[in-house]
Amino acid sequence: MSEPWRAALRTFDADLQRRGAADRTRKAYGTDGAELAAWATANGLTPAQVDYKALRRWAARLSQKGAAPRTMARKLASTRSLFRSLVEHGEVASNPADLLPAPKLPQSLPKTLKPGDIERLLEKIPASTPLEMRDRALFELAYSSGLRAEELVDLDVGSVHFDDEQVRVEGKGSKTRFVPVGEPALRTIAAYLERARPALQSADQDPALFLSKSGKRLSTSDVRRRLRVWAKHAATQTGVHPHALRHSFATHLLDGGADLRAIQTMLGHASISTTQVYTRVESARLRAAYAKSHPRA
User: Fold this and answer.
1) Residue 189 and residue 187: Cα distance in Å, rounded?
2) N or C: at which end does the chain have fewer Cβ atoms within 10 angstroms?
3) Which helix (H) or strand (E) holds 161?
4) Dihedral sign for Cα atoms in the order 180, 268, 153, 256
5) Rounded-to-integer distance, Cα 230 and Cα 228, Å
6) 170 SS3 class
7) 167 sits in which H/E element
8) What would the pLDDT profile of 52-99 be if each residue is shown by its tens digit?
9) Which DSSP state fits 192?
């Protein structure tokens, strides 16, 4: 990789940090940018020499290598963001990626669980050990408030406001929001804080709400692994992941008559269009019920 590209990627990463991009996003965009830089360097192109035609050749190469549509879409988004940063810093005159067409993505609906399945999942988590009490509190809160796995593990003890029955969440882009918490979740969190968390806490007094068995803050992989364990134990749907609880939270709120804007606020979506996917879930459910029940469907 040439030095102009190294400098461009450093500028790009600094901008992502300044904008509060999540670590996972920074890593993915950095990897995509490095891949483009390596290809451009091999073809004798500096950032200022990359134009629309060059990016078309690069996109065609990705397609020939078998990149899936979602992968292509992310790499094109990374590229647009990279050149947008370079335009802002005066390194290039215009963004050559703005004209690149995004691949058409399949309209996949988010996976949700039925209320009965979630109740069975949560009820199957016992409360006989500190780790079990932690897991019960963790997944009660995940479903009660629709938090992302990253948001769950970022919570500190002081994030839960018992008197106000809400939790303070630091979401994407370092945006703070307050989300309601249901009484069952508050009860399990209170029991965990009183009887389980002190047993898990180590000498360094980590302020994290949810601790590992070594007393450290949980990771998102810990959350996914523990949910798989309990989903298997409860014999619910296979492949249950934390985002399925988040999707279920939103879908069940919509089923219960909640306003889409309120759901958007609770989920921390920047755009209402992101939240509108749940109206498609409801529409698909109604069509299925119609097809199954109407005599002339």
Assistant:
1) 5
2) C
3) strand 160-161
4) positive
5) 6
6) strand
7) strand 166-170
8) 888 888 888 888 887 777 788 888 888 888 989 899 988 888 898 888
9) I
What letter represents residue 166's amino acid?
Answer: Q
217 forms beta bridges with 211
For 243-262, write each residue's pLDDT tens digit. Answer: 888 888 888 888 888 877 88
Residue whose structure tokens are 């370079």: 86
Residue 48 to residue 236: CA distance in whole angstroms: 53
pLDDT given at position 110 = 62
Tokens of 253: 């709120």
DSSP string, 43-61: TT--GGG--HHHHHHHHHH
Question: Which of the 8 DSSP states describes residue 98?
Answer: G
| Length of the chain measured in residues | 297
The rounded percent of the chain whose pLDDT value lies above 90 is 26
What is the rounded distance in angstroms from the CA atom of residue 209 to the CA atom of residue 168?
12
Q: Which amino acid is at 115?
A: P
**Per the confidence metrics, is the pTM higher than 0.70?**
no
Element (H, E) at 216: none
Closest CA to 62 of 49, 71, 54, 53: 71
Return the CA Rg of the chain.
23
| Cα–Cα distance for residue pair 213/190, rounded to 1 Å | 19
Where in the sequence numbering do the catalytic residues fall? Answer: 148, 172, 243, 246, 269, 278
What is the C-alpha separation between 215 and 169, in angstroms, rounded? 22
Return the closest-CA partner of residue 249 out of 148, 167, 153. 148
* Residues contacting residue 43 through CB under 8 Å, at least 6 positions apart: 54
Q: Which of 191-195, 213-217, 219-223, 290-294 has the lowest mean pLDDT?
A: 290-294
